Amino acid sequence: MTERYRGAELTNYLRPKLKLECVVSDRDVQTIVDTILKHGRTGAVGDGKVFVQPVDDAYRVRTGESGEEILQAHPDAAATT
Length: 81
Prior knowledge:
- There is one protein chain.
- This protein has one domain (17-76).
- It is 20% helix and 10% strand.
- The protein has 2 helices and 2 strands.
- The protein has a two-stranded antiparallel ribbon.
């Protein structure tokens, strides 16, 4: 992308951005982080960051279920795909 600023022509080399959000069980956090670091690293400026933060609770809107069990695929999901 080329822009003009104060009479000078500047070229910006902006990489496309991607935001990835994952909510996983505590036992899977390190596996997910390691996978993102392994496959997301180009070695160039702008590779991004991985933030890990706790999720206090989660609810499945359709059924009202809560807790860690909703992080797993619903048993009926495989049958509908």
